[in-house]
Amino acid sequence: MVNFWLGLLVSFAGIIWLWQHYRRVHSQWQKRAQQAEQTLQEVQRELTAVIQQYQAATQNLQELEHDHQLALVRIQALETENQKLERESQHYQQQVQHLEQNCQQLHNQLNQIQHNYQDALNYVKQLEQETEQWQEQVDQLLEYVGNGKINQRLEVSPSIHQIPHFTVIFKRTESDLYPDEIYDTILSVLKTHMDSLPDDYRRRHHILRDILACNSFSGNRDRFQQEIKSLFTSYQGKTERLVRDLGVLGFEFLDSPNHYKIKWRGDDRYIFSFAKTPSDYRAGANIARDLIRLLF
Questions:
Q1: pLDDT tens-digit map of 26-46
Q2: To which H or E segment does residue 182 belong?
Q3: Cα distance between residue 255 and residue 116, in whole Å
Q4: Is residue 157's pLDDT more than 60?
Q5: CA angle 271, 273, 278 (to 5 degrees)
């Protein structure tokens, strides 16, 4: 019996020890569970923070991608605008070059016009001098005719002096530069003067009409003028044919940097200049007209 109670006491002591051990172990596991739960909560909080950071980073990345797309669009727009500006710049450069060329052409034309204007002034002065000389000769001729100094026929060319009529002899130092030049010139001056006389100058009309009726034009003057007009028809500058044909008529080209110059019959009094390039379709006719005025 004692052993029974002793065994029961031992068993009860063992149970108490197990219960106390269980409580100690259970307390330790509770503490560990609490620590683990706290750790889990901290991990969850950190994970939540990481997720929030990830979401923020994702949003920032999306914003950066959007800004990148906008930047690409702006860059393309700037490139297009730059290409447009380059094309406009090239166009403006071409216009500037064209304007510079036009300015240079206008400057050359202005120089040409100034030169032609000076030539025209000189030509007008020459014409005035020649007109005065011709008027003096006409007055002298009319004075001779009016004073009855008609003893011979008008003799100005060896080819027509055999005609048996009254002639008038004039002293002169000029020689014909083509056959019957002076003869035809005097007749032309007399005819021009007769045509310009008023009707009440009747005696002069009769005298001049009689002289012109008895002395016909040789035609060399008109033929020479027609040759000059023909040479400068459709003038396009200096050609071998033009040099050759002008040489036949007694013209020679002189050296000149800006214009062509020609001299007639080697006489320095009859030097004529004209443009190297025609300004328009009337250039040839104008050159022929001015040359004829100089010589006829």
A1: 788 888 888 888 888 888 888
A2: helix 181-196
A3: 18
A4: no
A5: 155
Task: Provide φ and ψ at 177, rounded to 5°.
Answer: -90, -10
pLDDT digits (tens, 9 = 90+) for 65-77: 888 888 888 888 8
- Residue 294 CA to residue 257 CA, distance in Å, equals 22
| DSSP reduced 3-state for 253 | strand
Quickly state the pLDDT bin for 149 (edges 50, 70, 90): very low
Give the tokens for residue 174: 């000029």
Residue 230 near residue 248, CB atoms below 8 Å? no
Tokens 């000769």 belong to 137
Q: How far is CA 56 from CA 45, 63, 233, in A?
A: 16, 10, 92
Q: How many Å apart are CA 213 and CA 270, to the nearest integer?
A: 32
Task: Name the band, by pLDDT with cuts 50, 70 and 90, for residue 288.
Answer: very high
pLDDT, greater one: 154 or 97: 97
Amino acid at 60: N
- Beta sheet of 267-274, edge-to-edge order: 251-254, 260-264, 267-274
